[in-house]
Each structure stands twice: as C-alpha cells, then as structure tokens.
C-alpha cells in the first residue's frame, strides 16, 4: 500500500484497469484525495471513471473533496453564478427527501435565494426562488443552524452544486421532468448534472461484528422517523390484521410473536439488492449530518450499517427493525 500511495498519475495511467483500481482503493483507505482528483482529468476514460468513483467513496466516508468535473461542456460562468455563500442541506429522510437552501449573487446587487427538496430516487422534487440581500440570507442561515429540530448542516456552495447536480441527472434518468422555468433557475445558479451513483465504501474489518447494532440505529433521532413505504405499510397492515383479528386460536402474546415474524418476512421480500443499495446511500447521507454535529461515534455506526447493507446479503437487523417498529402503530386486535 505504501508504494501505491507514492504513485503518480502517469504511473497509474500505465496500469491495467484492475491494477489501477487497487491503487485507488489504497488511496481511499488512506483517506487521501490528491491522486484520484488529478486522475479524473486523465485522457483515459476508463482511468478517469475509476478516479471519479474513488472520489465519491472518499466523500461518502466524510473526506472533503472537490466534485469530479462533469464530462459535458461546463456552462458559461458569469458573475451571477459565482458565489462565496454557503448553503444548507437538511438531514436525510427515510422516504428519500432532503431539503436545500442556498443563494447566488445577481447582476445589479442582491441575491437570488433557492429552496426546495431533492429525492434520492426521482431527483429534484420542488424548487422556489426569491430575491433577498446578504444580511437577510446570513441571518436565515444562522437561524437554521441554531434550530435543534432542523438538523441541518451548512455546506460550501460546491456541495450544493453536487447534490442538485445529482438530482438533475436522476430527473432525466427517471423521466421526472421539470418545466422550462425551473431549468432556467438551475442554469442561473450555475448548476449542471452530476453522477448520482454514490459508491458505498467497502466493508471494514469490524463491520460483521457490529451487525446486531443495526436495530439500535432506529433509536437515533435522525432515523427514528424512518418508515417503510406507503405501499409496504399497506401490505404489512393487511397481514397483521389477518393475524390479530383472524380465526387462529392464538393467545395475544402468540399473535404478536407471529406479527413480528410477518414483519421480518415482508422485509426480506422488500429489501432486494437495489433497495439495500438505496438505504445504504441514505445512511451515508445521515452519517454526513452526524459528523457535522460532531457525533463521530454515531456516524461511524451508521456508516458501518451502510457498508453491511451494500456489500453483504445477510439478514439486516436495521432493515428488519424498520418494519418491526411500526407494528405498534397498526390497529390492535378488535375486542
């Protein structure tokens, strides 16, 4: 690994893809971004793609890196799209939404403030703009950061560009189009599509030993509100009702035991490989907010579960608890 960490861009470009991937893995494990960042500009598309994936892994693990440049032509930069102002990202909801708030200077003075919601499956869900001034914007940022219920993090504008750029690509990929007015707003802000496929870092040595901790993550404020989708909740409610109010001669305790088993069975049906990856990315976003709050231990636990979800097929206590915890909200047996 030491040799890998001393290699230059030119040396890595001369390696086969598989070997270049090993080198980049070493840089990711060492939490160093210099080589991957430089390699994104390689004339070798294969090596540049590997470098971009390495950067996403570094970013997901909490390392601050510049977003890899998009291969499409960059929009013309004007004074109105340059900004020294940070923005805000909210905590990740279990339903996929995340709120944002940022501003860019406009010609003639003042700011154009943007707020809205991005969804990690469908892209940009809402956006609105309004004119404001620097003092008002800074005051609003401070209010959001102080609000204990908001659970937001103040981030550089480049992080906002990356998050909304990912959403723009998802809009195109899922055909959840937005209108021309929104497109113009995004262009004014200097935003362009980015790669949304966040790479979950590989398993670490102690991840398997902490598998049972997955269920306890639902005690965290940021995850406590996470629930299955409306469709899955409807299925679970029907199955639980059939047990609690069905003809089986079971005691209340036996019925509840069977309901827990049913919840876990539905979880196994729902949590396909694609869904495991989706929730792994949601957990990475959650860990990012926890790190911002200086809750490193919680962030580490959440990232460990993200890696387990993404890189194993074993039963996830975290996923099971997502379904089991809602049993108490489903109507009890009829008397």
Describe this structure as you would to a colleague.
The protein is of the alpha+beta class and 335 residues long. The chain folds into three domains: 4-60; 79-188; 208-329, no CATH class. Helix content is 50%, strand content 11%. It has 14 helices and five strands. The protein has helices at residues 9-13, 17-29, 34-39, 45-60, 134-146, 157-174, 180-188, 213-216, 221-224, 230-244, 252-270, 273-292, 296-311, 317-324, and strands spanning 87-90, 97-105, 111-119, 123-132, 152-155. Strands 4-3-2-1-5 form a five-stranded antiparallel beta sheet. Helix 2 (17-29) packs parallel to helix 4 (45-60), helix 10 runs antiparallel to helix 11 and helix 12 (273-292) runs antiparallel to helix 13. The N and C termini lie far apart (66 Å).
Offer a concise description of the structure:
The protein is α+β, with helices and mostly antiparallel strands and 335 residues long.
Helix proportion of residues, in percent? 40-55%
Number of helices: 14
Give me the secondary-structure category: alpha+beta
Determine the strand fraction and express it as a percent band. 5-15%
The H/E string reads HHHHEEEEHEHHHHHHHHH
Query: Termini distance?
Result: 66 Å
Oligomer: single chain
* Strand count: 5
Rg calc: 23 Å
Count of distinct structural domains: 3
* Low-pLDDT runs: 67-82
The biggest sheet amounts to: 5 strands, antiparallel
User: Taking strands numbered 1, 2, ... along the chain, how are they ordered across the largest sheet?
Assistant: 4-3-2-1-5
